[in-house]
Amino acid sequence: MLIKQLININKDHVNQIIEAIALVADMKIKLTKSEKKYVDLVLQDASKQIDAKFWDYDEKQEFFKGLKSNQPVSIKAVVGEYQGALQLTIKEIDLINDTEVDIRSLTPTSDWEIESMKKGLQYFYDKVQRPHLKTLLDKMIFATDHYEKFCTYPAARRVHHNFYHGLLQHVLEVLKYAYTVATTKKLSERQMERLIVMAFLHDWAKIWEYKQLPETGFTEEGSMLGHIFLGAHATLNTIEEIEGFDNDDKLIILNGILGHHGKLEFGSPVLPKTVEAQILHHADIMSGDVESILSFMKEEEGKEDSFTGKLWNMGTEFYKKG
């Protein structure tokens, strides 16, 4: 059975053989409990990512030694299920010449229009009036060596906004949610500007944490240090370069970045200590959770069940009819 898009693979295909064209997003050589080598892959196209295994590594080790991430391949595989998620067992895999397929067509991309998103950034940037805060954004967001990455990188590896322009879309969502709450609760102009800066910068270091698409996964810096530390460290260094930067603004912005995951067990080294930081945390959660739910529901379009499968990072199923 020829599958034109990975999103078309569903539980009705379990135990069936499918053929597809996909991009190797990630690949690792691992050992079974009996110390036999196998290949653990993440395959993707513009619609979906899916885990896959190739168990007979020894029979095709030269192929896999030469295979790199972000290479397009054709596969023949058996559809299976593991811990509630679909998984492919690859029987045949071959390279496709880069000239025969557009790599970008195999890479998920935001369905938001890029120029509109860039205008959205400018809209919120223009709301920041204090010169030292504006300079901070100039240096970290709009500097030429950062801006293009900020506008193209993903915001996550798998869970939410894991696509081209994903970080940009996520930051805009957080800005919108945070600004709505802040205006509803009538925060002061100074609080509002600090909150906007925090929203701009809270995930900024994901341009260092993640590899550039179409590759997926973490950089060495990302694995060792994570985006929260990297972002706060870079922000502090940049602040120290700006003459006369207000100390209260510095502490509040840094606490917002460090505390935006909301809980110590979720990776934040400190808890949110200001109303701005709390608003940022909840705006961040809302953006990620809603995107996760909608993306998961889209993956399960066409299935007759009333509910999705269990979304692992939410711990529940979601009702699809509406």
Output the keywords:
Hypothetical protein af1432; OB fold (Dihydrolipoamide Acetyltransferase, E2P); five-stranded mixed beta barrel; 322 residues; elongated; alpha+beta; nucleic acid binding
Could you walk me through the main structural features you see in this protein, from its secondary elements to its overall organization?
The protein is of the alpha+beta class. It has ten helices and five strands. The mean pLDDT is 90. The protein is elongated, with a radius of gyration of 22 Å. The chain has two domains: 6-105, OB fold (Dihydrolipoamide Acetyltransferase, E2P) (Beta Barrel), CATH 2.40.50; 108-297, Orthogonal Bundle (Hypothetical protein af1432), CATH 1.10.3210.10.
Strand order of the largest sheet: 1-2-3-5-4
Q: How many E strands?
A: 5
Q: Bin the helical content.
A: 40-55%
Approximate strand percentage = 15-25%
Tell me the quaternary state. single chain
Q: If you average the pLDDT, what whole number results?
A: 90
The third-level CATH topology of the largest domain is: Hypothetical protein af1432
- Measured on Cα atoms, how large is the radius of gyration? 22 Å
- How many H/I helices? 10
Shape: elongated
What is the number of domains? Answer: 2
Going by CATH, what is the homologous superfamily of the largest domain? Hypothetical protein af1432
Class of secondary structure makeup:
alpha+beta
Describe the sheet with the most strands: 5 strands, mixed, barrel
Q: Topology as H/E string?
A: EEEHEEHHHHHHHHH
CATH architecture of the largest domain: Orthogonal Bundle
CATH class of the largest domain: Mainly Alpha
C-alpha termini separation? 32 Å
